[in-house]
Amino acid sequence: MDTFIQLTVDALTLGSVYALIALGYTLVYGVLKLLNFAHGDVFMVGSFIGYGVLQLLGGTTNPSVPTWALIVIVTLAAMAGCAVLGVVIERFAYRPLRDAPRIAPLISALGVSFFLVNSMQLLFGATPRNYDTFSLSNGALYFRGFDVGNVRVPLLRIITISSAFALMLVLWFLVNKTRTGKAMRATSFDREAAAMMGIDIDRVIVFTFVLGSALAGAAGVMFALRVPTQVTIGFVAGLKGFTAAVIGGIGSIPGAMAGGLILGFAESYTQGYVSTKWSDLVVFSILIAFMIFRPQGLLGRADIRKV
Amino acid sequence: MKKGIGLALAVLVTAVVAASAQAGHKAAAAPSAVSCSAPLKIGFVTPLTGGAGFLGQEQMSWAQYAVKTLAAPLGLKVTIVPGDTPVEQGPAPAQTLAQKFVGDPSVVAILGPSTSGAVAASTQTYFQAGMAHLSPSATRTDLTKTVSGVKEGTPAFFRDVPGDYIQGPSDANFMIKNLKVKKVVIMDFQEPYSTGLADAVETTLKAAGVSTIRLSAPNTTTDYSAFVTKVPSDADIVFFPTQKPADAQTFAQQLLEQGKKAKVFGGDGSNDSTQFKVPGSYVSNFAPDITGIAADASIVAGWKKANPGKSVGSFGPPSYGATQILLHAIKLACTADGGVIKQRRDVLRKVKQVSIKNWILGGTFKWSTKSNDPLNAKFYIFQIQNDGSYKLVG
Fold first, then answer.
1. Distances (CA, A) of A284 to A178, A272, A279, B19, B29
2. For residue B109, what pLDDT is reported?
3. Tell me, what's the pLDDT at A304?
4. What are the structural domains of chain B?
5. Per-residue pLDDT at A305
6. For residue A13, which residues of chain B lie inside 8 Å, CB to CB?
C-alpha cells in the first residue's frame, strides 16, 4: 500500500508538470494548428531564468527573502521571461510563415528549438544547474509535509502539485470566463470568421503564446526545484508534453490536463509495478494506441470533413 | 569476331579489377608522411556538452595545459582538436568523429574517447587506420580484456586509468568489509559504462552472499522518484554508477525525501564535489586528489593560473597524463623516422614504450605487459563530508 501511495504522489508530481507543458502545445495548436516543437526548449529556458533569479536573490544557502517569497518570485520571473520569449518566437519565427504551407512553420519550430538549445549552451555552458532546494531552510522542503500511512508527502511535492493545479484553474478561467478567452475560442474554431467578426487575430495569437510560454516557464521552475536543469532537458520534456497533449486530444485544454496526468500515472506505475526499463515503452505505446484507435485523443474533437 | 569481343571483354574485366584493386590499395594506404617540424594535431574525443560536459571540459583544460607546457620541450608543435560526444546522443557522434579524424592526415593520435560507449563505437575505425587512441577515463573492463568471450577494444586502444575490473571489486569489497552491507540496490543506465561497472559490483557482492536488487533507468532519466520508491527501506547502499554527478545528487536527495536510510555510492563518473555533495554518500575514483602530491605542486599552480577560478577535479589529471604519454610516443616516432611520421602506425607502436617518472597521479607510470592498461593502478574511495568535501576513506 505504501508503494502505491508513493507512486501516486510521484505520478501526480510528474503528471502536473507534463500537464503544464502539454497545455502550451495544445493552446498554440488550438489557435494556429501549429505543433510548436520549440515549446520544450521554452520550458528549459524557464528553468534557467528561475536559476538566474534565484542566484540574484542570494541562492538557497543565503536567500534575501523568505522561502515562500523566493519560490513565488522565481516562478513569476520565469513565467514573465518565457512569456516574452514566446512573443519573440511568434513574431520572428511563426508570423512570417502564417500563410505558408503547414510544413514551413513546423520546420521553423525545429529551427527555433535548435537555436534555443545551442544559444543557451553558448551562454551558460553544459554544466547542470542545481537549484539546491535541499539547502533551503535546512531541508524544510524535503522534511516537512504530511504523512499518508508510512509515506511522507514533502512540502516540495505539495507546492509543485498545488501550484500546477492552481495554474490550470487560472487558465480554465481565462479561456472560459473572459472576453479574451472567448476570442481565443472563436479564433480556434474559425480564424477567418473570427477576424470578420472584428477579433484582432494577431493579438489573440500573441496572447496564446504568452499564456503557453508562461505555463512552460512555471513548469520549468517546478521541475528544477526538484531536479537539476541543463540545456538538454527540453527535448524529452517537450516530447512527453506533446505526447500528453495528443493523448488528451490536441487542441483541448481539459484534454491536455488529463493527458499529462495519464502520462504521469502510466510512467510511475510502470516503473513501480512492471519494470523501470519499460516506462518509456509503455508511455509511447499508449501514444501509438491512441493514434490508431482514437486519433482525436481522449477529449479532442474528431476532424469532420465535408466530402 | 566473337573471339575479338571475348578478348575485349577479358581486357575490360581485367582493367576494371586492376583499377578496383588499385583504388582499394589507395584507400587502405596510410596518409602521406607528416613532418615533425610542422604543426601536428591530436584529436580529443570527449563529452564537452550534455550531462557529462563538466567531465570533458575539465579534461580538455588539462590536455591543453599539458600541450602548452610539454610539447615545446620535446621539440613538437601540437594542437588539440576537440570533438564533442554528448553521452545523451549515444554512439553516433563518436563514429562520425572517428571518420573525421581518420580522414585528416595531420591528426596523428587520439586522446580519448573519454567514455566506454564512445570507445566501443569507434575503436575499430581507429584500429584500421593504425591510430593510437588513449582514454583518460573509459573504464569498462572489456575494452582491454576479454570478458565472456568478448573484447570490445582493439590493440590500438589504451587507457592510463584502471578499468572496472579493479573499480567494481574495489567498491564492492569496501561495501562488504568496511560498511558491512547486507542489502545493496544496484542501478544501471542502459549504456556500456554503467552496465559494465554495475555487473562487476553485483558479481562480487553476490559472491560474498550480499542480497542485491538491480534497477535500470534510461540514460535520459532526470527524475528518479519511482526508482527511489523501489529501494527497500532496509537497503544499506544504492550503487549509482552514473556519468552525470547531478543525477547522483538528485537520487541522494530523493532518498532522504522518502525517508530511506540507504546511502548513494557513486562510481568515478559521479566524482564532482561541486555537483554531488549529499553528506554521507560515497564516491570512487581512479585518481587521488593530486593537490596532496608534493611533486605536482608546480603543475597544479600552473594549471590554476591558466584556468583562474577553477578547482582541481579528478578527471583532469589523468587527461594531462594521457597527453603526456601521447606526446612522448609522437616524439619517439619522430626520432625513429628521422624527423617525420611516415605513418600513424609508427606512433601507435611507440605508445607502450613510454614510461613516465614523477607521474601526475603519483609514482612512475608503466604499462602492463598483459594488456593496454596501466601497471599497478588502483581505485580510491571517498566519503562526502558535512561541508561537501571528499575525504579519502579507502
1. 36, 17, 9, 51, 48
2. 96
3. 65
4. 34-163+293-351 (3.40.50.2300), 165-285+380-392 (3.40.50.2300)
5. 65
6. 225
Q: Is B215 on the interface with A (CB under 8 A)?
A: yes
Q: How far is it, in rounded angstroms, from Cα A277 to Cα B180?
A: 30
CA distance A66 to A58: 11
Is the separation of the CB atoms in B146 and B160 below 8 Å? no
Residues on chain A touching B226 (C-beta within 8 angstroms): 7, 10, 267-268, 271-272, 276, 279
Q: How many CA atoms lie within 13 A of A195 on its CB side?
A: 8
CB B251 within 8 A of CB B282: no
Q: Report the residue from B229, B254, B259 with minimal CB separation from A7.
A: B229
Tell me which DSSP letter residue B367 carries.
B
Interface pTM (ipTM) of the complex? Answer: 0.75
Residues in Cβ contact with B291 at an 8 Å cutoff, skipping those fewer than 6 apart: B300, B312
B241-252: average pLDDT: 89
d(CA B214, CA A139): 29
C-alpha to C-alpha distance for B223 and B229, rounded to whole angstroms: 12
Show me where the domains of chain A are located: 2-234
Helix axis angle, A179-189 relative to A155-177, nearest 10°?
Answer: 80
- pTM to 2 decimal places: 0.74
Considering only the beta carbons, identify the residue of B86, B190, B253 that sits closest to A134. Answer: B253
pLDDT at A42: 96
Q: Predicted confidence band at B22 (pLDDT cuts at 50, 70, 90)?
A: very low
Cα(A203)–Cα(A215) distance, rounded to whole angstroms? 18
Please report, in tens digits, the pLDDT of each residue of chain A (307 residues total): 788 898 999 999 999 999 999 999 999 998 888 889 999 999 999 999 999 999 999 988 888 899 899 999 999 999 999 999 999 999 999 999 988 888 999 999 999 999 999 899 888 877 788 898 888 888 888 888 888 888 888 899 999 999 999 999 999 999 999 999 999 999 988 888 999 999 999 999 999 999 999 999 999 999 999 888 988 889 989 999 999 999 999 888 889 999 999 999 999 999 888 887 788 889 999 999 999 999 889 887 776 666 6
Judged by CB atoms closer than 8 Å, whether chains meet at B217 and A276 is answered as: yes
3-class SS of residue A251: coil
Q: Distance of CA B102 to CAs B13, B23, B24, B35, Å? A: 32, 18, 16, 17
Mean pLDDT of chain B: 87
Whole-number Å distance between alpha carbons of A97 and A106: 10
Whether cis (ω within 30° of 0) applies to the bond prior to B245 is no
For B351-386, letters b (16+ CB in 10 Å) and e give: bbebeeeebbbeeebbbeeebbbbeebebbbbbbee
Which residues from B are below 8 Å from A236, CB to CB? 220, 222
Q: What is the DSSP string of B115-170?
A: SHHHHHHHHHHHHHTT--EEESS---GGGTS-BTTB--S-TTEEESS--HHHHHHH
DSSP string covering A96-138, please? GGTTS-THHHHHHHHHHHHHHHHHHHHHH-SS-B---GGGGGG
- B237-240, strands of its sheet edge to edge: B211-216, B183-188, B237-240, B263-266, B282-285, B380-384, B390-392
Say if residues B110 and B43 touch (Cβ distance below 8 Å): yes
Nearest to A128 among B216, B227, B275 (CB): B275
Find the mean pLDDT for residues B80-101: 90
**Whole-Å CA distances, A264 to A222, A237, A258, A279:** 15, 12, 10, 10
The predicted pLDDT at position A303 comes to 66
Per-residue cell: A32: 494556429
Higher local confidence (pLDDT), B66 or A122: B66
